[in-house]
Amino acid sequence: MFKALVLEQxxxxxxxxxxxxxISDLPEGEVLVKVDYSSxxxxxxxxxxxxxxxxxxxxxxxxxDFAGTVVESASDMLTPGASVILTGWGVGENHWxxxxxxxxxxxxQLVVMPEGLDARKAMAIGTAGITAxxxxxxxxxAGVTPEQGEILVTGASGGVGSxxxxxxxxxxxxxxxxxxxxxxxxxxxxxGAKKVLPRSQFSEQGRPMDRQLWAGAIxxxxxxxxxxxxxxxxxxxxxxxxxxxxxxxxxxxxxPFILRxxxxxxxxxxxxxxxxxxxxxxRLAELLPEEFYQQATQEVSLEEVPELAEAITKGQVTGRVxxxxx
Length: 326
Fold this sequence. Notes:
Elements: E1 2-10, E2 13-21, E3 31-40, H1 42-49, E4 65-73, E5 83-87, E6 102-105, E7 111-112, H2 119-141, E8 151-153, H3 159-170, E9 175-179, H4 185-191, E10 195-198, H5 200-203, E11 214-219, H6 223-231, E12 233-241, H7 255-259, E13 263-266, H8 274-287, H9 292-295, E14 297-300, H10 305-313, E15 320-324
Helix pairs in contact: 1-10, 2-3, 2-8
C-alpha cells in the first residue's frame, strides 16, 4: 500500500482525497518508480480544482511530473536503483501521475537524472523548468543572441517565467521581466532580471505595430498580452510562446510577421521528442546556479496541495512549488 492524492468526480464536481492505494491498482507500464518529489504546475491546479477539462477519466492521481528511483523494471533501458525524471506524456492527465508515493510508467517516458541534479533539484526545475529551457533553445535556434538586445519574459513570477529569467541571465542576455505582482521585484532581480515591468503595461489593446523594443521574448500568458509583445519585437526577432494563462486567443494581425520578419515559435514540453528533452535536462543541470533552488522554490506536503492548487489557478503562487512525497 502507498499514499496518493486521488481525484474523483461527483455531480460534475472534482473531489480530492489522500488515501492508501494498492500497488496492484497502478496502471500498466514497464517501470515502477518510488516517487521522492513531484511539483505543482498550473495544469495540475486546473485538474485538481476542476477548473479545466484536464482529466476525463476518474479516479485519477494528478501530477504531471515527478522524480524518484526505479524499484522494478521490465525494460533494458533502466535498471533498479536508477534515478529518473518524468515530465509530460499525458501522465497526471490520462495516466496516474506523480502525486503518489509510487508510479508505474513506460520506460520511454523517463529521463535518467543528469549529473549535478537530485530529485529535489529536478522538481524545483520540473515541467516549468524544462518548458523554459525549450523556450530558450527555440530562441537560440531562431538566431536570437545576447548582442541583439533585451529579451522580455512575461508571467515572470510563475514557474516557467522565473526559470526563464534565470536561464537567460546565465546565458548573458539582458532580461526584462513582466509581472503582475510588484512584491516580486526583488526576487526577479535576484534571479537576473535587469528591469521589472508591470503587467498592466501590456494588458490593454495596443497597436498591431508598436515601437521596436525587444530582440525576443518568452511568453507564458497568450491573448492580448502576447499580441502586444509581438507588436514590440525588433525586426528579425522571435517570440517563444508556451502558455495561455491569459487566454488562447491572439488578437493581432499579420503585419509584424510580414513587415518585421518576426517569428512566433510554439513550444510544447508534453510530447517533446526524447533526444531534445534529454538535451534540455542536461543544459538545465549545467546552467542553473545553486542559488536558484533556494530563491524560487517552496516545499510542501501532499496534504497541502489542494489549497495551493486553488491559489496557482488564481496567479497567487510565486516560483516553483515542490511536493515532498517520500
